[in-house]
Design goal:
Keywords: Membrane, Transmembrane, Transmembrane helix. This protein has 81 residues and is mainly α. It is 60% helix and 0% strand. The protein has a domain of 52 residues. The radius of gyration is 20 Å and the shape is flat.
Amino acid sequence: MNPYKFFEKPESLKITLIVLFSFLTVVTILDLIVPKKAEYGFEEFPSFFSVYGFVACVVLVLAAKYILRPIVKRKEDYYDN
């Protein structure tokens, strides 16, 4: 049995997204309610670490696509020779 077939079913994907967005909503609300012990002033902005993580992820994806891929990429018949 392929364990990845779980995500191929539309109803499983829908349930997964509902759980994920519910979790994100709870974490965002807790971030607004729970007092933080910030070392720097910018850490006190609401959802700072969520935005920081998202921006870091986007930067990594763009760097992989436009910087690393041309370096690692080979021609289609590279292994045929």
